[in-house]
Amino acid sequence: MATTDSIDITAAQAQPDSKTRRYDRQLRLWAASGQSALENARLLVISGSATSTSVLKNLVLPGVGHFTILDPANVTHRDAGNNFFLEGDSSIGKSRAEEAVRLLAELNEGVEGKADTSSLEHILDTNPGYFASYTLVIAHNLEPKLLARLSTLLWADDTLPILVVVNSDGFLGEFFIQFHEHTIIESHSETAPSLRIDKAFPALYDYATSLDFASMDPTDHTHVPYVVILVRALADWEAAHDGKAPQTSADKKAFKEAVQAMKIKFDEENFDEAEAQAYRCWTETGVPSDITALFQDPQLSKLGPTSPPFYHLLDALRQFTLLPPHTLPLSSTLPDMKANTSSYIHLQKLYKTRAEEEKATLKGFLTVPIDDAMVDSFVKNAHGLKVLRGKKWGALDAEPASLASAVASSPKAAATHLALSALSSVSSPTPSVEALTAAAQALLPPGIELPDEFSDAVGEIARAPNADLPNTAAFLGGLVAQEVIKMITKQYVPIDGYCVVDLIETWTGMV
Amino acid sequence: MSTSDWQDRYYDIDQVLNTPGPRTDPAFLAGDGVKDFLRNQAKILVIGAGGLGCEILANLALTGFKDIHVIDMDTIDISNLNRQFLFRQKDVGKPKAIVAAEFIMKRVPGVKVTPYFGKIQDKGDDYYLQFNLVICGLDSVEARRWMSATLVNLVDPENPESLKPLIDGGTEGFKGQARVILPTITSCYECSLDMLNKPTAFPICTIANTPRLPEHCIEWASVLEWPRVHGEKKVDTDDPEHIGWLYTTAAARAKEFNIEGVTWSLTQGVVKNIIPAIASTNAIIAASCCNEAFKIATSSAAYLNNYFMLIGTEGVYSYTFEHEKRDDCPVCGGESLELPISSEFTVEQLIELLVEKQDVQIKKPSLSTPTSQIYLQAPPQLEQATRPNLSKKVKELVSEGGEVTVTSTSLPFSLSLRITYTN
């Protein structure tokens, strides 16, 4: 038995520092790389409303680098009642931005907060360069004309910040992320990469076919990993069947029986695992279709030294897949399986060695230097790569045909979206159901009717045309912050379109 | 209007309390009556002052609940500060319920929050009967089962006031759920036990003989080595020295077996069964819970029927559905659970099955028939007296179709089984 003091491992060195301890529960989701992206991000939030501060709270806590609240208003009686980041009636009359920044900054000493009491209109008129230093801009219930100007300004150039538009009223709300392009390496896909049992690499094939199952020690026999059993069983099968894997259901049944027949004792669980995983022998490992689709990306045809590293890696991956065996590079991650330590670790080494070799092949296709950590991550996550192309805010409402198809495919969510769009297009502070319905109808092409669900949504808007409810604010605050974290860390997959929320029946939907 | 309510304090909320919407129950009495109930009469209990609890308390206070009680048995840890926004560095080590209550009362004028630093099991029926609503923001399955069963047991058909709606929230990483339970009327927490993910369990022989993963080495250190070296002393997972010992012990074993990947963080994750947690998911789920509480308390809009599930890893995906009540639910169903077993099954195997079975999951069950005791976990004399039954076949003790009652000290209910034999 090993004694701990004979080995050079000390607890003191390994114990995390206080910052790591503070962020422990989130580092388990987005790791140090995600955290560092968050800490380098600069947010601009337009207005210090209850919804705005709810969003910010969820970004200050995990440690975003900087936030500015842009808001010329002073705290009103109603603000003091519905916003947790104001100090009740004692904040009334003070600057809403300054009060909110003071109380939000208190949540995390590592975050820098700034209040700007200028007006957005004045900035748009006089200083359009104002926005360039931010990573992302969030706007809540912004006046439609200013929102249109802001979104056009930020859309003009893809180096300008991402814009998140949040609109809410009463129990209803929606938000939209305006971005040109978003590439994701770490999508945290829940599907595991292929073990490539059907296309065993030479070292694995040689190992599996060299084992002498018949004269093996019985304990070792019970601990041969299922991956090795299957590679061997498949090799034996192919040798007897003109080099073909099992094809018909009779073949597959016979193959499974052959695996069972390899047992020397009835309770060898490794062979049961092999039987359960036998489908891997006839499910051909290829390049997943959504990855193949990425190879058609226009960025690849105009690839040059200044293209983002992601596309250089994607092009290297494309070239890699042209080589036999026409798969993605091997993943070095092996799931747990019935095996003893030595056979499992041996198999793990075979996979690691091969994965390193394939990574080196892929690197050989790169024409620009890219740091190793990024290449590692790209190869490891190759099966979950994503490229999202966004739209300008307002594009949907400007395309009656797209709206009509949204109404047809997701009527409930589309109805809520139309009701909220109608609210921002009418000028009355207390619009009637009729006026809102007319405004929504005007967005649709002639002859297309509003969905049945529209009356439920518009009735809520007319009931409370001007309500920033604390629960709705908190709900949207959570959802928006979640998506902002995904955009900033480039991990997980953000929404694509409008996310619509109805807190009466409690559902979310996408338009 | 109470003195702390400045003019227009509830300008936003009053819009939905002054007027009904298209989906508002016709029984809704818009206006002063509902406001008075919400602000001057409603009494609400929050279980948990952690990730969800902090959010729940803030939302309830802002929406106008003024008499809020909160129970939590934990103290504040530094790893709470990334999301439990009522706590600061200086509060580390203090009781969550007390610090949270003070913060809310300071921030939201006129709201009274009464904390209890202790266990939910410390309180009896009379305590729970005083509330109109209960919201749970817990991370423990045991505590939720206890709370749900307690509120089901509280229901007296003669007294409608005894039915306390329970709103339950839970999160894990980017995922979460919120649900409304009307005890005895809708599906209760126990009805949905089979929806829980199975906890990862490593077979003891793997841990002892054939470790393959860093987790196996950590389990070895905590389950086998710790008791061997430290005897009766239990691991304190909050003590860095204990974690340090487990880490070095696990790392040494990993080195011996050429296994990579034992880290401090993984060691802590495995021994504490850490679930990733972030402010944003907690905000969504807590808001949903409080929104249901608000709608139930005011009837201003229909409430959730009855389960909202959120998955935020890929886009925003959610699913709202009605979870069905289980007729054989041991808490609210009334019918016994049919359990077919082999006639070769021993009592010990039956106990193992009850511990593992997804819809039962009873730790340390005691078993009896209407006429005799099969096996009792406590007290020690009875445990000793019934222990010989463990190796007996169930069939020797229970006839075909016979009733077996299962109890456990961790749960305030008993499970009734009807045993049938498959051969």
From TrEMBL, chain A:
Biological processes annotated in GO: protein neddylation
Residues annotated as domain THIF-type NAD/FAD binding fold: 23-138
Domain of life (superkingdom): Eukaryota
One Pfam family here: ThiF
InterPro entries: APP-BP1, ThiF/MoeB/HesA, ThiF_NAD_FAD-bd, Ubiquitin-activating_enz
Record keywords: Ubl conjugation pathway
PANTHER family according to UniProt: NEDD8-ACTIVATING ENZYME E1 REGULATORY SUBUNIT (PTHR10953:SF29), UBIQUITIN-ACTIVATING ENZYME E1 (PTHR10953)
Listed name of the protein: NEDD8-activating enzyme E1 regulatory subunit
TrEMBL record, chain B:
Domain spans labelled E2 binding: 339-422
Enzyme Commission number: 6.2.1.64
InterPro entries: E2-binding, ThiF/MoeB/HesA, ThiF_NAD_FAD-bd, Ub_act_enz_dom_a_sf, Uba3_N, Ubiquitin-activating_enz, UBQ-activ_enz_E1_Cys_AS
Pfam family, one: E2_bind
GO function term, MF aspect, one: NEDD8 activating enzyme activity
GO CC, alphabetical: cytoplasm; nucleus
Active site per UniProt: 205
One GO BP annotation of this record: protein neddylation
Pathways involved: Protein modification; protein neddylation
Keyword ATP-binding belongs to the record: yes
Family: Belongs to the ubiquitin-activating E1 family. UBA3 subfamily.
Protein function: Catalytic subunit of the dimeric E1 enzyme, which activates NEDD8.
PANTHER family: NEDD8-ACTIVATING ENZYME E1 CATALYTIC SUBUNIT (PTHR10953:SF6), UBIQUITIN-ACTIVATING ENZYME E1 (PTHR10953)
Protein name per its UniProtKB record: NEDD8-activating enzyme E1 catalytic subunit
